[in-house]
Amino acid sequence: MARYLLSRLLGGAATLLAVLTFVFLLVRFSGDPVRLMLPDQATAQDVAAMRHALGLDASLPVQYISFLRSALQGDLGISLRQGRPALEIVLERMPATLELALISFTIGFFVAVALAVISEVSGSKRLHTAILWVATARQSVPPFLFGILLVLIFSVKMNILPAIGRNDWKSYVIPVATIASFEVALYLRLIGSAFEEMRASDWVRTARAKGISRPRLVMGHMLPNALLPVITVAGVNLGVLIGGLVVLETVFNWPGLGRLIIDSVSQRDFPVVQAGVLMIACAFVVINLLVDFIYAALDPRVRHS
C-alpha cells in the first residue's frame, strides 16, 4: 500500500515538472511581450532595457533554471501587466472557477446516480431507454453551444435569468445547468452500463433467487459495485472540468481562472499564464491522488497488487 501511494506521489511530482517545462517553453515561443508593453515609438534601446529588466535577454536555459528555482520557493514571478505577484492574481480568480466546477460536478453526479437507480429499480425498459436517449442527445451538443441556447431562451427571450457575470444565485443557474447536464449524461451512461453488466452476473441471479427485493439489491449491492469504476472517471473528469472551463467562462463572462489565462495569453503576460496553468495542474494532480487513495481503500485488489 505504501509503495503504491509513493509511486502515485512521485508520478504527480513528475507531472507538475513536465507541465512547468511545457508552459515555460510554450509562452516564450508565443511572441515578445516587450513589444506589447512599450509604445510604437519606442527605440531599440528602450526595448533592450525593458527586456533586460524583465530578464528576457538571458538564454533560455538560464531563464528556465531561474524560473524553476523561484517556482520551488513559491515565487512565480510578477505580472508584466499588473505589476503584482502572479500567484496572488491567480489565487484571486481560483475560487470562482472552483465554485462553478464543484457545484456543477456535485449536482451532475448525484442526479445521474438518482436517475440510474430509479431506472434500475423500476425495471422499465421504456424508462431506461428514454433516459439513455436524453443523455445521448445532451452529450451530442457541445457545452458552449448548449449554454448559448440557454442564454437565448432564459435571458434574451424570457428575461428571467442573467446572461453573464457572477453576482447572485441567479448568475449560477445557466452556467451550472450547462455543465451539470453534461455531467449527468456522462455518469448516467457509465452507471447504466455497469448495471447492465451486473444483471447477467451469477451473484445478482443468486440474490434474486433468494428473494431479495429489487430496491435492496440495487441500492445495497449493485450500486456500490457500479460506483467503483465511476470514481476513477469522476476524478479525472473533475480535474479536466476545472481546467476546461476556459470557453464557458468566456461565454458567460465568468471571472474565473480560465478567463484570466485567456486574457493573459493575448497580452503575453508570461508569469500569470505560468501560474494559472500550474494551479490547474496542481488541482488535477491532487484530485487524481485523492481518487487513487479512495480507490485503494475501497478495492482490496489495488492494495495487494
UniProtKB/TrEMBL annotation:
One Pfam assignment: BPD_transp_1_N
Alphabetized UniProt keyword annotations: Cell membrane, Membrane, Transmembrane, Transmembrane helix, Transport
Cited Gene3D superfamilies: MetI-like
Record-level GO BP terms: transmembrane transport
Gene Ontology CC entries for this record: plasma membrane
Entry superkingdom: Bacteria
Subcellular location: Cell membrane
InterPro entries with a match to the protein in the record: BPD_transp_1_N, MetI-like, MetI-like_sf
Residue spans crossing the bilayer: 100-119, 140-160, 172-191, 226-252, 272-298
Family: Belongs to the binding-protein-dependent transport system permease family.
Protein name (record): ABC transmembrane type-1 domain-containing protein
Source organism per UniProt: Puniceibacterium antarcticum
